[in-house]
Amino acid sequence: MQLLLMAHQYSQVLLQRDEVDAVLLDCSKTFDKLPYSTIVRSLASHGVNGELNVLLSDYLRGRGQRAVVEGYLSSEQPVPSGVPQGSILGPLLFVVAVNNLASKLKSLVMRYADDIVLWRTIKSDEECTALQHDLQCLENWCEETGLKLNPEKSQHLRVSNKIKKVAVPSGSYTIDGKQIHTVSWAECLGVTFSSKMDWTGQVDKVTKKCRQRLYAINGSFPK
Fold first, then answer.
1. Alpha helices in the chain (DSSP H)
2. Domain boundaries, position 184
3. What pLDDT score does 22 carry?
4. Which top-level group of life is the source organism from (predicted)?
């Protein structure tokens, strides 16, 4: 649903002869660094109180981990933060913890697990400045929450059919003073979005994967 909404809204902006700036953000080790206190506090703000809140708190706390190398088992180390990966509750608890993010931003935001896309319709350089301000607010929120954005792996996608595009006043968007690379296509939840909103890249990716699987199948059944 999130992908359909993004594709529809980006296409509508192009039909109106405007532009879209989308910033696809990368959070470093999001599921590992989210503090327990943030999750429990978010649960309480969503009405999860009493014994259920205590139960979920116990589910998160008191966990440990070990490593095995060449048959040797390390001593157990406590896990001070994060949600249990590979579990059903883990992604759900993370979504609850970051659910209040949109209320702190004026730009539109798409969230799915640890994927965050911040975007805004661009009609003037003032819109670019507003998007940069939201990036700063998001960075502050991540610091308060115990998360960290990775500017090197984040991407800026300008969706536009215009020859003369609105320029970003500072040259590029930044996180923690570091530039976010501008790309002509970007992948979100496995779907490739291009700056022209054509689906050539997505079709090429899918057909390539199909050819690889057909080749593997043919190799399993020699003539």
1. 2-15, 30-33, 36-45, 50-60, 89-97, 125-145, 200-220
2. 1-220
3. 94
4. Eukaryota
The DSSP 8-state label assigned to residue 191 in this structure reads E
CA distance 101 to 4: 21
Q: Cα separation of 38 and 30, whole Å? A: 13
Tell me whether strands 155-159 and 181-183 are parallel, antiparallel or unpaired. Answer: parallel
Overall domain count for the chain: 1
Per-residue model confidence (pLDDT) at position 144: 80
Kindly report, residue by residue over 174-194, the tens digit of the pLDDT. Answer: 998 899 999 999 988 888 899
Q: List the structure tokens of 64.
A: 């440990």
Burial grade of 220 (CB within 10 A; 0-12, 13-18, 19 or more): exposed
Q: What is the pTM of this model?
A: 0.80
**Which token pair is 53?**
């809140």
